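Why should sequence recovery work at all? Because a backbone constrains its sequence more than one might expect. Tight turns favour small or flexible residues, buried strands favour hydrophobic ones, and helices have their own preferences. The token representation captures these environments compactly. In the example below, the structure is given first.
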């Protein structure tokens, strides 16, 4: 199923973070969100209240069977077609009683589910429908998951439940809040207070997780390749065998509340925190992705990867954003460029981009890193406004106070 969302690609996505200085055309095929590239090289599109979002806090994201993107916000539900938002409140959906705790989810068939403080519901056309056995008696619903055989698992503050057709069935953990669910083959993992449970053959066993977890909530579970990760109110954990451990690369997150956890088809792990967005991939380690808008930090809470391999990100503070590969690399301070002003660009004798800045002449090495060539001390004026290579490979530099010739030595 392909999204009906129009591309809505904006050229300002290339310069929004203020780091774009030189664009390099790519000749190799693009991956969805290439883990070999820095997060600053992705194109970021953003939608907020000014674009029609009913409320800035996006708490969950899902896609229906028609390809529309649905969002839960603290001001009701929204449906997005790529160009505009349709808002849904109590007056728009019969049976809908909005709550800031509502979360939206789509099962494998594209049916839309709504998690509420009073059980689970379906969204069908212009109404919200109660589900037999999944009403107020199961309390607050936190999570859903697709299970083998087409059934849906529901986690609530009164345990784990399953629904196929007919009344829902309680599966156990009756006195346990189930914040997160993940199905891995025949095993169900359930995140709860101070524990993650492994459920196999109807038997629930807590995973070993060490000491010091008093008051910790395991609120997210996701899989990246053959690894399973759990996000908690006190750091990130990885499942190794029957034990949860904090991997060495995540030690800096040990005292940080994980607000959202997601993954994509290229093996990236996306981590939402109170003050932004992080990405982990074994090739590059843990990196911060600048997700703020207009100097507002992004409190990232929700992720969804669509069929076009775009990553949609929901934030409490900045609304909805879409992350995707672009056809440019951003060469800025994060790659080692010391000056933000680029005045001139030319292809050098090594077939790599060379450019003049306010502090001299630079070139890009084969790894995409900026390398200084001629410093300000060797120039009539520090700003290289014009750059030209003659047939001999010599560089002619035009500055504010005269010309300079670089002969390669």
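From this structural description, the recovered sequence reads:
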């Amino acid at each position: 199923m392909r999204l009906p969302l129009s591309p809505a690609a904006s050229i300002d996505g290339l310069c929004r973070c203020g780091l774009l200085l030189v664009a390099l055309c790519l000749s190799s095929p693009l991956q969805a969100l290439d883990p070999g590239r820095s997060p600053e090289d992705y194109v970021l599109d953003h939608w907020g209240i000014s674009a029609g979002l009913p409320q800035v806090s996006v708490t969950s994201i899902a896609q229906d069977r028609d390809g529309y993107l649905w969002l839960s916000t603290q001001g009701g539900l929204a449906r997005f077609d790529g160009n505009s938002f349709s808002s849904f409140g109590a007056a728009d959906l019969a049976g809908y009683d909005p709550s800031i705790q509502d979360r939206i989810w789509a099962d494998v068939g594209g049916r839309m589910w709504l998690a509420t403080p009073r059980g689970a519901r379906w969204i069908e056309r212009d109404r919200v429908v109660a589900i037999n056995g999944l009403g107020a008696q199961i309390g607050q619903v936190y999570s859903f998951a697709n299970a083998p055989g087409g059934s849906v698992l529901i986690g609530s503050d009164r345990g784990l439940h399953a629904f196929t057709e007919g009344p829902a069935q309680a599966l156990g953990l009756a006195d346990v809040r189930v914040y997160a669910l993940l199905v891995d083959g025949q095993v169900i993992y359930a995140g709860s207070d101070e524990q993650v449970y492994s459920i196999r053959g109807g038997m629930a066993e807590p995973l070993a997780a060490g000491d010091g977890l008093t008051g910790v909530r395991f609120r997210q579970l996701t899989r990246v390749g053959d690894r399973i990760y759990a996000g908690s109110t006190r750091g990130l954990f990885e499942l190794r065998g029957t034990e949860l451990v904090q991997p060495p690369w995540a030690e800096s997150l040990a005292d940080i509340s994980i607000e959202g956890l997601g993954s994509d088809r290229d093996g990236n792990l996306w981590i939402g925190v109170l003050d932004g967005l992080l990405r982990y991939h074994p090739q590059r380690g843990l990196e911060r992705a600048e997700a703020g808008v207009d100097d507002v930090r992004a409190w990232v809470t929700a992720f969804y990867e669509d069929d076009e391999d775009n990553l949609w990100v929901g934030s409490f503070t900045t609304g909805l954003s879409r992350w995707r590969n672009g056809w440019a690399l951003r060469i800025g301070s994060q790659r080692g460029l010391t000056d933000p002003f680029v005045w001139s660009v030319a292809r050098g004798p090594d077939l790599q981009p060379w450019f003049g800045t306010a502090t001299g002449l630079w070139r890009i090495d084969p790894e995409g890193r900026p390398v200084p060539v001629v410093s300000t001390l060797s120039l009539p004026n520090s700003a290289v406004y014009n750059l030209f290579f003659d047939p001999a490979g010599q560089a002619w530099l035009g500055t504010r106070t005269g010309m300079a010739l670089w002969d390669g030595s």
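A few observations help interpret the result. The first strand starts at residue 43 and ends at 47.
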